[in-house]
Fold this protein.
Amino acid sequence: MAWLVGLGLAMAACGGDSSSPTCTGTGCTCADSACSCAAGQDCKTACGEDDCSLACTSSAKCEGNTNGALELACNDSSQCKGAGGDDSELTCTGSSNCDFKVGDDATVVCNTSATCKIQVGADSTIACSDSSTCNIKCDGNCKATCTGSSECAVTCGAAATPATMCGTGVFACGPC
């Protein structure tokens, strides 16, 4: 996070201590720990150590970062990227494009025709459906379920070992 401070962006926590997250860029607004970006370009939300949420709509270009849990909704044809801590929840729909690294116990949903590049920690679950495309890297045990005409590539650990196919459209890093 030091690189953000080096860029001259003030860092503030969201939630907990009653301060708002840092939210820069056109179309970016926050109320306590909930931020949104509607049709904005280069919306950047930084929440420090605390949990926060970010909703990106109307073809927005968003970046959300927190060491706490990130709750993200990336809709329409938005481009969303960033990082979240343990217990993060990401939902990418429409023709959105998501690129995230999140911690353990994360939940990721990628549907409609979304493109998702996601790195998750241990004990995470991923659901890809409809005609979405998912490229998933698990840093520990995780399960991915791919339904409809979705395309999934699931790899495990630093060596990027292919995941075990547990059944039709069900992939696991670790036990099935």
DSSP finds one helix and 19 strands in the chain.
